[in-house]
Amino acid sequence: MESNRVRQSQVTGTPVYDSKALAYGGQTATKSLGGYSDPALVQWLEQATAYYNAVMAGDPSTPAPSQQEWNEFLAQLQWAQQQLGYGQQAWDPSLGGMGGGAPLGGPQQGQTNQFGGMAGTMDNWVYTNGKSQIGFTGNGTHDIWSNEFILDVAPVSAQVTIEMTTDTRFQPPEEVAKIVVTDPATGTEAVYFVHDFDPAAGDTIKINTPDAGQLRDANGIATWGEFSQVAEGSKPESSIPGEEQPDGSLLYEPEFSGEIVDFWAQPGEDQKHVVYADANISVKPSDTVEFSANFGGDVIVKVKHSDGSTDTYIVKKGYNVNVNVNEEYIEGDIPSSLADRVTINGAAETTGTMDGDAIVEALLAATGRTEAQLQSALDASGMNMTLEEFKAALSEGELTDPVDAKLLNFLAVLDPALAESLNELKNSWSDGESDNEDIEDIMEDVRGRMIELLSVLDPNSIYSPGQGVGEIEIDGENLCWSIDAGSGDLTAEYS
Fold first, then answer.
1. Which region among 2-11, 193-202, 294-303, 476-485 has the lowest average model confidence (pLDDT)?
2. What angle do helix axes 371-380 and 405-414 make, rounded to 10 degrees?
3. pTM of the model
């Protein structure tokens, strides 16, 4: 029998509490929250929690409330949580926006964090993908409902303990795998609760640390792996692996003739690449490029990076090369003998469509994310496409034609480095303490990172800084981007 305090809205068919006609929606949660004696309030909070998470995730099947309805919803949610013993958690409806009602002192920035977690209602992050990979970033509480959970812990100073215990935050209490990461070097601690963990059903937990001695797992709940740092902004150097030669060079030879090898020139060390295929080389915006030929009929492309390191590409006779580079950064002239074998900022004719799978692989390497986290970023940014649809759009060159606000917001959700710079930019405006020079420096960082990521998504286009710090030149067109100081959303328009 339906409680007299939990009923359905006549407009939306979603539950409301007491007499307030608000659009509270979402499906009934399978877990119970709190120990309050009134089961109707517990039931409502379960449904309200599911609704909050659905709105934050941009679920298209969940009715979107008006701003007034959202503010009233947050006020009721605050009252309900206080009644259930979560009195320290406060909600501030004045923050506005669907993303402005996160708990103060807990997750607040946007709809998801850099690992695909949604802001929960208990000062926590919530993960519901089948596979979740999370990095330790300091203080925080994380609740994971995943069959496969991977925790990356980078600091060598951190200690990790894991045990099966009882989680009393839920009613009735439930058994969970509890992981605590403590880093005395920074004075931070994070707790990870893995719910419904059942190794007999194939559930797994893997914890990656620099040293196995950092993990304390008396009951053998998890497996250990060695943590390896993915350099920020890194990309794979090529679309196929190179085979190291006795002289230290790398040899690239695809399985069949006619295939093209894509390269992303990386700074850090001097390398020589010998290529038996048509090559498509993309360089960093500040790199300089020099062309020459040898007596054997090879095209030699030397890419000089700002850190002083050099990548040299030897494209063997009979094969062509395209280089994506700002033409003003080409040193010297292209030898006339190479005129019919070298193109600048144009895909070689034999490429056809781009390889969406390879581009996604490069994008994940550049951001350090997983396919599940990429899908979460697509959902959170309103791209409204599956991973396979995303790959298909990349293959056809449709995703960046044109670059729009949704695409930029997707990158902001997906990439930790870009998200960090944008949050810093937003905070600099809101605190009123940063001077214009500081803000311009941050905007330069944001623009540089956007150019790097866009170059991964579309290696056949040339992306370079525009005249203003909020401008990007794309194949000769000027894109102006900006950030809303309130919501943190990005906008984009061409001028």
1. 2-11
2. 140
3. 0.37
